[in-house]
Amino acid sequence: MASLRDLLPVQELDTRALQLRHRRDNLDLRADLVEHNQQQSAQQQVISELEAQLHQIRRAQKEAEDHASLIDDRAQAIAKAMYDGSVTDPKELGSLQTELAQLRANQDTFETQALELMEQADPVEEDVADARSRADEITASIQAIGEQIIVAEAEIDAELDALAAERATVVAEIDSDLVALYDSMGSMPGGIVVAEMTGRRCGGCHLEIPSAQAEQIRSASNPRDSACPECGCLLVS
Ligand SMILES: [Zn+2]
After folding, report:
1. pLDDT value at residue 86
2. pLDDT on residue 125
3. How far, CA to CA in Å, does 220 sit from each of 76, 225, 235?
4. C-alpha to C-alpha distances, 63 to 59, 74, 75, nearest whole angstrom
5. Are the beta carbons of 190 and 21 closer than 8 angstroms?
6. Is the Cβ–Cβ distance between 71 and 110 less than 8 Å?
7. CATH no. for 25-154
8. Contact 235/201 with Cβ under 8 angstroms?
9. pLDDT of residue 1
């Protein structure tokens, strides 16, 4: 005769499947992946900031070099005028001499500035390289974690497939009305549709059932009348 008890093995398999699906959805690896993705975003931010800093130094260096070069052109033109014999007036020569000295001094200032900026850029350039290689490491970790997730999911999926096959075999031996009743109650709290009543304690919600109701459950001839008054799961007594 069909008995609710027949459904207990189905419940056991379904509970195991539920736990597996929960484990699949909550793999530690997934949290790990989220953390690494956050690290990667932060690292990209660090890289952009360093690159902006480097760009600024390089631009200032270029400006100083351009200034020095323009001044050098002008100084060379003056030197040429002074020494090619085209200017002979001693007073004019004297003023060219003064201007040349002033230009060379200015040129020196800009060249020194360009050198200092180049020295400033060096450590920042190293920082950019370090930050990029750290980002590459994080990318490699993300890839590795992604692969581990695929493997872990495949393992769980294989277990779920095995459970589904086992369930099909078990269900084939059970009264089809009972199975239909069970399946119609698929969305019970914690996935518990059928549980044993031990004494007066419900095996689903673990609460104590009042004596009169517990007695009704024991004497129920229709499985639908054996539901726990608290959680609604069908009780095997
Ligand atoms: Zn209950």
Report:
1. 85
2. 97
3. 113, 6, 10
4. 6, 17, 18
5. no
6. yes
7. 1.10.287
8. no
9. 61
Contact of 32 with 147, CB cutoff 8 Å:
no
Distance separating alpha carbons of residues 225 and 229, to the nearest angstrom: 10
Question: How many Å lie between the centroid of ligand 1 and the Cα of residue 190?
Answer: 11
Q: Give the predicted TM-score (pTM) of the model.
A: 0.72
Q: Which of 160, 179, 172, 170 is nearest to 223 (CA)?
A: 179
Q: How far is the CA of 228 from the centre of ligand 1 (A)?
A: 5
Classify 196 as helix, strand or coil: strand
209 and 169 Cβ atoms separated by less than 8 Å: no
User: Distance from CA of residue 69 to its chain's centroid?
Assistant: 50
| Dist CA 10 CA 172 (whole Å) | 11
Q: Where are the domains of the chain?
A: 25-154, 185-236
Please list the rounded mean pLDDT of every run of 10 residues in the chain (237 residues): 89 96 95 97 98 98 98 96 88 94 98 98 98 98 98 98 98 95 86 95 95 94 92 93
Q: Cα of 3 to ligand 1 centre, how many Å?
A: 19
Q: How far is the CA of 21 from the centre of ligand 1 (A)?
A: 23
Angle CA(71)–CA(72)–CA(77) in degrees, nearest 5?
Answer: 100
Q: What is the length of the chain?
A: 237
Copy the structure tokens of residue 104.
């060379």
The single residue listed with the structure tokens 């609460």 is 207
For residue 216, what pLDDT is reported? 94
Structure tokens at 62: 């270029």
Q: Note the pLDDT of residue 87.
A: 85
* 193 C-alpha to ligand 1 centroid (Å): 10
Whether residue 72 contacts residue 156, with contact meaning beta carbons closer than 8 Å, is answered with no
